[in-house]
Fold:
Amino acid sequence: MGKVLVHKSQEGVTSGRIVEVEAYIGPDDPASHAYKNRKTARTTVQYGKRGLAYIYQIYGKQCCFNIVTGKEGKPEVILIRALDPIGGIDLMMKRRGISTTRNIKNLTNGPAKLCQAMGIDKSLYGEELFGKKLYIVEDEIRIKKEEILATPRINIDYAGNAKNKLWRFIIKNNPFVSKR
DNA sequence: TGCACGATTCTCT
DNA sequence: GAGAATCGTGCAA
Structure:
């Protein structure tokens, strides 16, 4: 939390601070694509090394960006749900389109929105996040524990009891978090 | 090979 | 706050 995600693409560089995430603990989490260690073409990278990008498409055109955090063989990932834009805001606006950027918050306050703004798509599936194209920077700003709030995750009603787990984390009072 | 559905977004009311 | 768009994925057959 509070780290900066950077993407250097052909079109230019965009970056933003991570202000909202969700955890998905594969084997024991009905909301995870890797529930019960399910291994398919889509989830393969979840079983790979830490620091790889897990990107999946949902509802047709939308895509979401995750970071693999579990040890090799453990399908644990973090979904990035919102960013606070820092660099390349013009490019983000261009990618997102004029109609949706009347309100600056609409640039990156949702998992599929930030992918579009950052230019992240399935071609970056399995990309190393400690590489040159897509990576995370630790900067001088440190988020204190008291500034982080744990809440239930969003849109996983199908997951039974797991929907009540406090596995969504947001930075308090940050205007870019997707929902209150 | 077929079919139901979703870790969402946008628009309209 | 509700409803449509939209298609890859996973599982049944």
Remarks:
- The mean pLDDT of chain A is 95.
- The first strand of chain A starts at residue 4 and ends at 8.
